[in-house]
Amino acid sequence: MTYLLAIGTGKGLFLATSSDRENWEVSNPIFAVSGVYAVGIDTRRSTPRLLVSADSAHYGPSVYLSDDLGKNWDESHDSAPIAFPADTDASFKRAWQFAFGPEEDVVYAGSEPWALWRSEDRGRTYELNRPLWEHADKPDWNEGAGGPAIHTIVPHPTDPASMLIAMSTGGVYSTTDRGASWTASNTGIKAEFMPEGQQFPDHGQCIHKVSRDSQVAERVFLQNHGGVYRSDDGGATWNDIAGGLPTDFGFSILAHPGRANVAYNAPVAFSDNRFPVDGTLRVHRTEDGGASWTAHDVLDEPYYGIVLRDALCTDAAERPGIYVGTRVGDVFVSTDDGDSYRQVVGHLPDVLCVRAAEV
């Protein structure tokens, strides 16, 4: 078995491969000098497909595909894979997320500006979801620090009609009719940057990441801009579970791929510096749905690189790997459910996203 780790950075894509997740071979940069904000590894067919959103300052943004684990890339398109229709008066800046639901060839992409895209040919061409793009709430959405993007897509594992999406700053939205309509799903999520008496709005929360429990489909974990939450009803309502964490601020959250109620969080000190809490890189794990959290050091030395929203992932193996990438170019892996970590690679450009799979 080969493990593939795709590392998107501010200056290119790096692919790491390993047979034991202890010794890794790391490629030279691919799409060098391009920002790689999103990577997808589609393993639903016998031949895996890699999808990459590369944003070149010279050539502009596009989506690229590889069916041979990154040896060759389909970079030629009759037309741009993702492009806004002329009547929208908008331009595609980059994809922030690829997601795969229960329908074999369907791929979803979330983009900047705020848009959801659906592909029915494994990511070669995409169609804009008009109901979300034209949503009545859209005038109230504002840019987060990272830009006006749909950065999180959470398909339902068995029901292709149901999905959650999240954005900064617009909040969580849900659909149960294949995207024909969308409902704000933020009940219980605090927008602490709003004035007193207005901190629980219908929408407008600055969501950072959402991850679905692998064993209980209606259980979802969420990292907000201030607040860590769990929903037990598919996102309809949310309860704060940050009590056992050193801070409720951060960017990433990840559900375990095979254990119910287990999730991971990498807290960030809420200050102008935005460093790891106490200057130590730690990932906190809950095994009881957020009732309690246990801290595990990734490194036992001072460290100042934080984990961004898509830089925490799993390969979903039977003995899963948990991968952590940081803004100072290091990537770590745990193969004991997060008890301990070892370095995969260091000294890369800032890590924007990581994705891993058995291939």
UniProtKB/TrEMBL annotation:
- Gene Ontology biological process terms, A to Z: xyloglucan metabolic process
Out of the domains of life, which is the source? Bacteria
* Alphabetized PANTHER family for the sequence: EXO-ALPHA-SIALIDASE, XYLOGLUCANASE (EUROFUNG)
Q: What is this protein called?
A: Photosystem II stability/assembly factor-like uncharacterized protein
- Which organism was this protein described from? Phytomonospora endophytica
Species classification: Bacteria, Bacillati, Actinomycetota, Actinomycetes, Micromonosporales
